[in-house]
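FAQ

Q: What does a record look like?
A: Structure on top, sequence underneath. For example:
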C-alpha cells in the first residue's frame, strides 16, 4: 500500500510482512482478584507482561514506556490500565521537533488531548 507520511514523503506499507507469533495467556486461578492487596505485585507483573506483548511489534512505544517506568508523565497513572496511548512530541514537529526518542513521550490518549487543549487555550489567552 502506497501512502505519504505526515511530512508528505511517500512510504510503502505491506501488511503481508507483519508476522505475529501466538502467545497464550495463563488463566487466573480460582477467585484471585485485582482488588486483593496481597496480590498487587502479581497483577502489576501480569499487566506489564500483557503490555509488553501488546507492544511487541512497536519497539518505540515499548522503549518509551519502559523509560517512563510505565507511567504517564501527565497524570502519573500507570500506562498499563488498558487506556489507549498516544505518542507526544515534546517539541512539536511544526516547531522543528523530530521523531527521535528523546523528543517523544507516551501518554494516555486523554492526557495527550487535554494537554494540547490547555496549551492551545493558554496561547490564545496570552497572545
Amino acid at each position: 500500500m502506497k501512502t505519504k507520511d505526515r511530512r508528505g514523503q511517500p512510504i510503502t506499507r505491506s501488511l503481508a510482512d507483519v508476522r505475529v507469533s501466538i502467545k497464550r495467556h495463563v488463566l487466573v486461578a480460582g477467585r484471585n482478584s485485582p482488588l486483593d492487596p496481597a496480590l498487587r505485585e502479581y497483577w502489576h507483573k501480569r499487566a506489564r507482561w500483557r503490555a509488553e506483548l501488546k507492544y511487541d511489534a512497536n519497539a518505540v512505544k515499548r522503549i518509551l514506556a519502559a523509560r517512563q517506568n510505565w507511567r504517564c508523565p501527565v497524570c502519573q497513572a500507570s500506562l498499563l490500565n488498558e487506556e489507549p496511548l498516544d505518542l507526544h512530541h515534546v517539541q512539536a514537529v511544526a516547531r522543528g521537533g523530530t521523531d527521535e526518542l528523546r523528543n517523544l513521550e507516551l501518554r494516555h490518549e486523554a492526557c495527550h488531548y487535554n494537554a494540547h487543549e490547555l496549551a492551545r487555550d493558554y496561547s490564545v489567552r496570552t497572545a
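Q: Is there anything notable about this one?
A: The chain has a mean pLDDT of 80.
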